[in-house]
Each structure stands twice: as structure tokens, then as C-alpha cells.
């Protein structure tokens, strides 16, 4: 499992030549407006194979637990039971291969047709569990709820730690604790999922996880750039520092934090104002910022950043033209869902 990086030459470039050779999921009857349904259909056509594999077109065409979880959530939102079934099947058969903890392997490679990174990623497992809970209710399948409950138990057992009086979700079961220092990724703290999993697991400490995540996100805002970091370190005394494992940067991971805060009815969180102030750049958006120097290392247009920018400003995030690569396309759809659910579910 690595931090997400995007080749700048690929921004805005058509992708998916290999996908054109694959059989794709069929269209289906869905909830939502016709334009929203069309966005989901386009996403499936470009990024989901008939086997239910979500293809990351900017990352060697691999599939990963994050992408599977996102697409499973979207399938439920759009009432697309056939797509959900295919996505769930691939996720279970290709990624649920860790016998000791029941978490999902992070990535699967089409080159080897096998798992390419067996470490689990906390956000992927959160998303999958959340999608299973939603699917169980929407499609009337109690077995999905039982599967979700088993995964929730695995998450709380293997991915939750106490440090300096805080209850924290660590990024994965291996490689993120060194000499008592935790390496943390705040974009993995999907607080609306915490709430949903907490309703299914009332004794799991999910309220504390959410409260401590919100507090740490505020503390982690970079004082100079006002940007949210992709990664940071937390020592045994609760002090925050730059990660010693990953570069000190604010980029394609951190952009998701405002999305999740709004989705979780936290529009007043200080991170949203920081995000709005730090995002613009003369060339479009500040896509990647070096937190050591304060310099923007990549700037330009990006459909996913645009959708989240509009979401944070209270504007409709629907795109005029859908994105052509996996990550911006999925951010567009997630921003749309967060926008709709904020309007209908947040006080």
C-alpha cells in the first residue's frame, strides 16, 4: 500500500484502452435523476469490468480495496443490485484472502492476475463494510449485514489503536508503527462510515474514533500552507510531526478529507475553510504541495478537485463533462452523493 501519486501527464488525458477490450457491466434501472444515473453508467462503462473489477486507470490498471468499496457504495446509492453483486463477488474472491484477520488485501494486479499488495488498507475495509451495511438494508439481504459485522469486528480488532489517550484508526495492520510512533493518514478517517458502523456495533467505540479524528485533523493543518497533510506522525505523547515514512505533502489523499467531513455533516469543521483558502492556484488548483518548502509542485485542472471544491463552497458538484480517469471520476460521483445526502440527512 502506497500513497496515491498521479502522473501529471495523465491529467485530463483519455484512458482506458485496455478497458475497451473488456466486457462491461450491463445497464440497469437506478434511483436518482437521469443525469446522475448517466454518470454512474458512464463510470461502469469505463472503469468496471463484467467480473466486477474496478480498474484504476492511473495506477497500472490495478484494482484495490478502496476502488471496490467506493463502487460498491455507488452501486447501492444508484439501486444497481446487479452491479453490486458483481463488485461484491470480485472483492470477496480476489481481495478477501487474508486468513488471519479477515481484512482485505489492498491491491490486485491484472499482470499477474493475483494480489500484488497483501497488506490491508483501512479505508478500503471501512468502505466495504459500509457498503455491505447499506446493501443489506436496500436490497433486503441479511447475509450482507452479517458479513459486514464480521468485517467490522476485524477492523476494530486489527486497525484500531489507543495512543496518548486517543482512539485511532491506523492505515493498515502492518508497517505503520515504529518505535511507538504511529504513521497516520487522515483521509482514511471516513467519519460518515464511522457513524454507520457504530450503529451496527454500538460497543465498538466509533463515536470516540470520530471525535478524535475530527480533533486530530484540526491539529494536523499545516501552519504555513494551511493545507491538510496526506500523512503525519503521532508520537506516544500525542505530539504531531511530519511523517518519517512518507513525503511531507498535501495532495491526492488529503483532498478527500473535506468530502468526508461534509458527508458526515461536519461542514463547520475548520479544515473546510483551510481547504478552500489553500486550493486555488494561478494554473487552476494546487494539486500537490510540498509541506517542507511550502511550494506547489503540481498545479492544473482536475475534475475531482473541482467537484470537491464546489462541494465545499455549497455548490452543485455535478460535472459539465465527466472525468476520463478513475480517480477524478470516482471523486465526482462521491461528491455528488455527499451533496445529496448532506441535503437530505444533515440537520
Automatic annotation (TrEMBL):
Keywords: Carbohydrate metabolism, Cellulose degradation, Glycosidase, Hydrolase, Polysaccharide degradation. Gene3D superfamilies: 1.50.10.10. Pfam families: Glyco_hydro_8. It catalyses: Endohydrolysis of (1->4)-beta-D-glucosidic linkages in cellulose, lichenin and cereal beta-D-glucans. Its EC number is 3.2.1.4. Belongs to the glycosyl hydrolase 8 (cellulase D) family. This is cellulase. It comes from Natronocella acetinitrilica.
Amino acid at each position: 500500500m502506497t500513497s496515491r501519486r498521479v502522473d501529471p501527464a495523465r491529467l485530463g488525458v483519455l484512458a482506458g484502452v485496455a478497458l475497451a477490450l473488456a466486457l462491461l457491466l450491463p445497464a440497469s434501472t437506478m434511483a436518482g435523476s437521469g443525469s446522475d444515473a448517466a454518470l454512474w453508467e458512464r463510470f461502469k462503462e469505463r472503469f468496471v469490468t463484467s467480473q466486477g473489477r474496478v480498474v484504476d486507470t492511473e495506477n497500472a490498471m490495478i484494482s484495490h480495496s478502496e476502488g471496490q468499496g467506493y463502487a460498491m457504495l455507488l452501486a447501492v446509492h444508484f439501486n444497481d443490485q446487479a452491479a453490486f453483486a458483481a463488485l461484491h463477488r470480485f472483492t470477496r474472491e480476489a481481495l478477501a484472502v487474508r486468513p488471519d484477520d479477515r481484512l482485505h488485501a489492498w491491491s490486485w494486479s491484472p499482470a499477474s492476475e493475483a494480489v500484488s499488495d497483501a497488506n490491508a488498507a483501512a479505508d478500503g475495509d471501512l468502505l466495504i463494510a459500509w457498503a455491505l451495511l447499506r446493501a443489506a438494508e436496500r436490497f433486503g439481504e441479511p447475509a450482507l449485514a452479517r458479513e459486514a459485522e464480521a468485517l467490522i469486528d476485524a477492523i476494530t480488532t486489527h486497525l484500531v489503536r489507543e495512543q496518548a489517550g486517543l482512539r485511532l484508526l491506523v492505515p493498515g495492520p502492518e508497517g505503520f508503527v515504529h518505535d511507538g510512533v504511529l504513521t497516520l493518514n487522515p483521509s482514511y478517517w471516513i467519519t460518515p462510515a464511522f457513524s454507520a458502523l457504530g450503529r451496527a456495533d454500538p460497543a465498538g467505540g466509533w463515536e470516540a474514533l470520530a471525535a478524535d479524528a475530527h480533533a486530530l485533523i484540526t491539529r494536523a493543518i499545516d501552519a504555513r500552507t494551511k493545507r491538510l497533510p496526506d500523512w503525519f506522525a503521532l508520537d506516544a505523547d500525542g505530539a504531531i510531526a511530519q511523517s518519517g515514512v512518507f513525503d511531507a505533502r498535501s495532495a491526492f489523499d488529503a483532498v478527500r478529507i473535506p468530502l468526508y467531513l461534509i458527508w458526515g455533516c461536519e461542514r463547520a469543521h475548520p479544515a473546510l475553510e483551510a481547504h478552500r483558502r489553500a486550493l486555488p492556484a494561478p494554473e487552476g488548483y494546487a494539486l500537490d504541495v510540498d509541506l517542507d518548502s511550502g511550494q506547489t509542485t503540481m498545479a492544473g485542472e482536475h475534475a475531482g478537485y473541482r467537484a470537491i471544491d464546489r462541494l465545499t463552497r455549497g455548490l452543485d458538484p455535478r460535472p459539465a463533462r465527466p472525468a476520463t480517469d478513475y480517480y477524478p471520476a470516482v471523486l465526482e460521483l462521491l461528491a455528488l452523493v455527499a451533496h445529496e445526502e448532506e441535503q437530505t440527512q444533515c440537520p
